[in-house]
Amino acid sequence: MLADYAIRSVNGVSASQVVVETRKTRDVNGNEVFVPIIGNGNSEDIPGARITISSEARARATGREKPSSEQTSRGLTEEQQDQISDLKGTDRKVRAHEQAHMASGGNLVTGGARYSYKTGPDGVRSAVGGEVSIDTSPVKDDPAATVRKAQRIQQAALAPADPSSQDRKVAAEAAQMANQAAFELARLRYQEATQGLRGVTSTFSLAA
After folding, report:
1. pLDDT of 47 over the 80 cut
2. How confident is the model at residue 155 (pLDDT cuts 50, 70, 90)?
3. DSSP 87-129
4. Could you give the maximum distance between any two Cα atoms of the chain, in Å?
5. How far is CA 7 from each of CA 63, 77, 81, 153, rounded to the nearest angstrom?
6. Range with the poorest average pLDDT among 25-29, 33-37, 151-155, 200-204
7. What would you report as the CA-atom Rg of the chain, rounded to the nearest whole angstrom?
């Protein structure tokens, strides 16, 4: 294998005129090592050659090379570190968003928050999306209760500091449900009032 040595000189010969290769062998302790072999570019050995190797090249040859300036002590590049930081920030925002829905929704929430995840360069999963299910059905035969429920649904949908487009859609649907229930409530009250007036008229007619 061709070695990546930074050679200063070999027996006074310019580094550009020599080829350095390594041969795998074992030292006195039985450890596997690579021994430099010197050649002159024509694969002819230079007997008794003495080689001077820089400290950087020696570190590469022994597998103890220091991380580059782009690498951290954990072996991650600055770009990967930035990605991890962004994922952590997203995770915090997503969880705070869904917790706001749950806190405002109260007993309208039909289950815990569900999250979608992305694994970062460090192997840690971070939440990048989430959802909370809320009961948005009207209250049967009770338009007044339906109005109150729809108002709570709106509050829960818009509870986060940054409502999503889906949150706004749920809030709009709840507003529509509240309007329909309010119309039905007004109709029922008018009907009750009309029936009451008819009863009063009939009573006066009988009395007369």
Report:
1. no
2. very high
3. HHHHHHHHHHHHHHHHHHHGGGB-S--EEEEEE-TTS-EEEEE
4. 141
5. 17, 29, 35, 74
6. 200-204
7. 39
Q: Does the structure show a pLDDT above 70 at 154?
A: yes
Residue located via tokens 């039985």: 30
* 75 three-class SS: coil
- Residues 6+ positions from 106 with CB-CB distance below 8 Å: 152, 156
Domain boundaries, the chain: 7-61, 77-134, 136-208
Give residues with Cβ within 8 angstroms of 164, minimum separation 6: 97
Stated as kind and residue range, the H or E segment containing 8 is: strand 7-10
Q: Smallest Cα–Cα separation from 174: which of 129, 132, 134?
A: 134
Closest CA to 86 of 74, 97, 78: 78
Quick one: 69 exposed, middle or buried, by C-beta within 10 A (0-12, 13-18, 19+)? exposed
**Residue in the structure block whose two tokens are 């991380």:** 67
Structure tokens at 199: 């009863």
Structure tokens, 168: 């706004």
